[in-house]
Specification:
Elements lengths: L1 E8 L17 E8 L6 H23 L19 H21 L1 E2 L2 E2 L1 E2 L2 E2 L6 E9 L5 H7 L11 H16 L9 E7 L1 E2 L9 H5 L3 E2 L12 E4 L1 H14 L6 E8 L7 H5 L1 H14 L7 H11 L5 E5 L1 H14 L3 H12 L4 H27 L5 H13 L7 H11 L3 H4 L6 H18 L2 H13 L6 H17 L3 H26 L8 H17 L4 H12 L4 H18 L2 H11 L6 H14 L4 H15 L2 H17 L10 H14 L3 H13 L8 H16 L3 H18 L5 H6 L5 H8 L6
Parallel strand pairs: 1-8, 7-13, 8-12
Antiparallel strand pairs: 1-2, 2-7, 3-4, 5-6, 9-11, 10-11
Helix pairs in contact: 1-2, 4-6, 10-11, 10-12, 11-12, 11-14, 13-14, 13-16, 14-16, 16-17, 16-18, 17-18, 18-19, 18-20, 19-20, 20-21, 20-22, 21-22, 22-23, 22-25, 24-25, 24-26, 25-26, 25-27, 27-28, 27-29, 28-29, 29-30
Length: about 750
Amino acid sequence: MITIALDEAGVFEESQKDNTNDSLTTLIGGIFFDDKGDECEFDNEKKRIEAYYRSVIDSVNKQFPELHASYPMDLHSRNGKNNHKVRNVKKKVSETLPGFLQDGLYEGNALIYENQELPERTGKYIICAVVKSSKGKTDLLNRELGEFFRDDVASNMYYHVASDVVEHLIFHNPLYPNIGKLNLDIATRQSSLLDQEKSEKYEEFGYTRNNRDDLEEGIKQYSLMNSDVFRTILTEQMLNEPKKDISISSYKVRSISYYPNKKSKDHVFLYMADTICSFLTRNIGEDDVVEVRKRAQKLINQKNLIFAYDEVDLYFKRAWQAMEIKEYYDALREIYTISTMDTPEAKLYQEYWIRYIKEKIQKETLEDVKDGRLPYAFSEALDELRSAYMTNALNPAREEFIYSVLSQSKKALEEDIRYSKLLYYINDIGVLINCHKGNLKDAEPYFENCEKYAGSVDLEEYTRTRNRYTNTLLDYFEYEKAIGVIRVTLDLLGGLYNLSRQKLGRSRLCFGKTEYVKTLSQAGQTAAFLRDNEALGFFDESLALMEDNLANKKITQSYRLHYLIDAGEKELYIDGMKEYCGDVIMPSEQLIALKEMGHRGDVNPSFALYLFLKGAYFFYSKDELENVWREILDYEKSIDIGRKSSHPWELIYKYLGLISLRIGKMEQAKQYSKLILKSIEIKDESLVAAIALFAEAELTDAMGDGALAGNKYTKLYEKLEKNFPLFNPDCVKQYKSKDKKEYMKKRFSYMYN
């Protein structure tokens, strides 16, 4: 059976913070006692608590005979009359309380009750508290709720904190998910004595007024915590989160009596709750939840139930409720948010509760593995994480955080071949993350492990991993490695596709066709970066297998056209561009067609303009360019400004500048040169930044400033050498380039140019 005894400290009402007798730290807290199933332990612990306090009083009286301290009266201040006694009693309690709570002893000795030594404790204490932070939830609640519910109205905050206590200790307890039988011993709370002005909101919102004859006229007091109030909080949460395992054996909400009568023997758990609240808050400063936790650890050096009444706790609540139903991914999304917060309260959760959730995920996964079960919760979290990388709602930092937690279970899975599929997914996500970051070096070992576990997943899934890795190789200018990887991918997919055609017939939907078509297109791009004529065959085969997917067909057609421009195949380009633009051949009409396709969503307007400008620059005469120049400018202006801050606008501005030079518009070319770097976010390690810097250097060179261009090429190469292995001196020698500029021109090919 569990016993929870609660008291409070501090001021919960903003309008009453001028009371200097109250603690600056505000909390509801106390003790959580587990009798470990021993039916006698509850009664024995009551005796231990009384024996402990009597031992404290005896020690104080021996040290200060003149005090004449008595139990239980001098455990608590009585309007300041006994402060000199209470001060010394609390000092002795501070010295001896850890020994009592942890071991059931007083200064290392067994406790004596009515001349008999009490049995050794079998139960266990946990310190519990919900501590209001400096901000609390006032801003949040006042922003979202009406005045009746607001935190800073009357004593509403007290109810809100009490509700959090019930939620954390009873219904969603991280340390005790299945409470079972429960004893509740709760201290009542009254409002301060309020004048007419301060009592207005209490009256307006229906607070229960105490009937006291001893109050001056116009002074009122209200009952805040009583049996009905606490029962309402319990009932509300039980209805919201039915827990059949909870049964309340004893329910008491009462004022703590410190007078030596029969009641005192029954109030000992409340005495301990009062002592705990005092110990946690005395001389602490204002609302310091981190210090409260440190003090709790001094009392009991184990996992205690310390929470903050703060916005950070909202994220933890959602995380923990997700953990209760083993939704690891959702839980980790919430604790990621906590990990990004920079407050004392967030620090507590980061160091304590986030770590606890991480450890719990690993523990539960390991238990499944040891018992030979599939760790379904872990597997589902991996699936959700992989899916996140396929959506527009991706938060890379968050997903990487989630992966760092889930991947901690990798070692346990490696010991059993049955978990090869999960190991594949773990490594596949490693490829995904590093491909997304453009981090080839870190992606390589994950890709090698995917090859190791490839037999555990279907072929299409494996080829998607290979294609992602190929893209990363291309992002790192590793064209030779990329063509090697994609040839194997084509062999795998082509074999499946051709076999299914042979066995099922040409008219059937063949296995692997979708991925095969995509991979053929990617193979065309890879060969195009190498300026290999094999690219044309890959593109043509991919297009031949495409059916009604217009968007994909347009993308592959554009890839093919870029290769034809690079290869100088003017006639093939003209024919291909005519088909791409809907059988339109005149440049001005092609621009109109491209604009219309962009409006329909058939093509990306920016990439369509980039393709047109590149083809026009390489294949049109000066007169042809002059004739279509105004239409080009109109097209450029028609594109939404929001699209002009990312790739390929660094290349669009380069070609606008080059065409401006061709038709004698030097000043306009200079303006476009300035826009190249403004169009993207410059990061030293970024591929797009490298493309932009190369584009700027090329345009500067074309404008006739060789010295400035040379300086730009040199600075760019320094960045490339630092961030891309293919630009280190050994690679330059390997590819027999005479100088760095020549080597850069060789690597900045195809759609990087």
